[in-house]
Amino acid sequence: MLCARWIENPYYQYFCGELSFCHRLPFDRSSMTRWRQRLGEEQLVALIQESLSVAHKTGAIGPKDLERVVVDTTVQPKAVAHPTDARLMHRAITKLVGLAKRNRVPLRQSYLRLAKRAAIMVGRYTHAHQFKRARRQLKFLRTRLGRIIRDIRRKIDGDAALEARFGPLLDLAQRVRSQDQHQRGPKVYALHAPEVECIGKGKARAPYEFGCKVSIATPVTSPKGGQFVLHTKALHGNPFDGHTLGPVVADMEKLTGVEARRIHVDKGYRGHNYPHRFRVWISGQVRRVTASIRSEMKRRAAVEPVIGHVKAEHRMDRNYLKGSVGDRINAVLAAAGYNFGLLLRWLAELLRAIIRAFAETVPAQKIA
C-alpha cells in the first residue's frame, strides 16, 4: 500500500528527495530479501556488535555492564494462522489442486467446493458443541485429501520433473492427513512454514504459541543509555532452556569481547549446562547470595520489558521472513533495531546537554 501511494503521489516523492516524478519504484521489492540472504545471520550479527561499540564509545554502556547479564528466552511467533485440523486439510487440498492446474495435471475431482463447505461446518459444529457431527465433517476432509494425494501420485508416476515439483507438497499433505492430536514428535502447523513449532510458556492469554524460541541477553545493571540487547539467537527444536545457556553465553562473550562474571536466569534454567556453574544465579536461590548479588537478582526481571519492546516495536512479535534462516535473521535485526533506537535517544540527550551547557556559558545580552 505504501509503495502504491508513493508511485501516484508527487508530494511523497518530493519529500523523499526525488528531482522528477517517477512512474515506478526506484528499487525492486525483493532487494531487501536478497540482501538479507546474501549476508546471513553471521554477518548481520555485526550490527549488534557495532551498536554496542558505539554505545561504549559514547558512554551509554560501560565494561562492567557487560560482565553482569540476564539471560532469558521468549517465543518469536511466525506469521501463521491458528492451526486446526480442518484448516490445514482444506489448505492442503487447495494447494494441491492449484499446483495440479498450473502443471496441467488432470484430476478426477478437485473437491474444492465440498472441502470449503466441510471446513466451515467443522467450525460451526464445534462452536455449537456438536462434536460428533464435527468429527464426521473432519473425516470427510481427510478422506478427500487422501483421494487427491493418491490421484496425483498416479498421474505423475514416472515423470521425474513432476515428481520433483509435487514431492515436497505431497509429503506435507500426507503428514497433515496422518498426524493426530495426541501424537508425539514434530507436527505440521503451517504448510508454507513447516519449521513452525508449538511452544507452551504457561501464559494465561496464550497457552500455546507457534514459532521458534529466541534467547535474549541484557545487562542486569542500569546502563546510562538504557537496557541494550547484548545477544540474541533463534533456537529451533524447542530446546530446554538450561541446555541453551552454555552456547548462548559463549556466543555473547565472543560478540562483546568481555567475559561474563555473573549470569542471572529464572527457574526454567535449573539443570543448565554452563561449565562455570558458580557464575550462574537462579531466581529464588538462597545459598552463596550476598547483599550485592541479592540486589542484582531483584533486577532479573529487567529483561522482560526489553523483550516487550523488541516484540511490539521491532517486529519480533510476528515474523514474516521465510524458513528457519528467516527466524534467525529476524531475531538479530529486531535486536539491532532496538539497540540503534536506544542509541538515537542517548545521542539526542547528549546533544541537548551540550546545548544547555553552551547556553549557560554564553552571557545573556542586555536588553536596552
Per-chain topology:
Layout: H1 2-8, H2 10-15, H3 31-57, H4 63-67, E1 68-77, H5 85-102, H6 112-127, H7 131-156, H8 160-178, E2 197-199, E3 209-219, E4 231-235, H9 241-256, E5 262-265, E6 280-282, H10 291-298, H11 303-313, H12 323-361
Parallel strand pairs: 1-5, 5-6
Antiparallel strand pairs: 1-3, 2-3, 3-4
Helix pairs in contact: 3-12, 5-6, 5-7, 5-8, 6-7, 7-8, 11-12
Protein name: Putative transposase
InterPro entries: Transpos_IS5-like (IPR047710)
| First-last Cα distance | 58 Å
- Strand fraction: 5-15%
The rounded Rg comes to 27 Å
- Give the ordered list of helices and strands: HHHHEHHHHEEEHEEHHH
Count of the domains: 2
The number of strands is 6
Largest sheet: 6 strands, mixed
pLDDT averaged residue by residue: 93
Secondary structure tally, helices: 12
Short overview:
This is Putative transposase. It comes from Bradyrhizobium diazoefficiens. The protein has 368 residues and is α/β, with parallel strands linked by helices.
Give descriptors for this structure:
six-stranded mixed β-sheet; single chain; Putative transposase; 12 helices; 368 residues; alpha/beta; Transpos_IS5-like
If you had to describe this structure to a student in words, what would you say it looks like?
There is one protein chain. The protein is an alpha/beta fold. Helix content is 54%, strand content 10%. Strands 1, 2, 3, 4, 5 and 6 form a six-stranded mixed sheet that branches. Helix 6 (112-127) packs antiparallel against helix 7. It is globular, with a radius of gyration of 27 Å. The N and C termini lie far apart (58 Å). InterPro entries: Transpos_IS5-like (IPR047710). It comes from Bradyrhizobium diazoefficiens. This is Putative transposase.
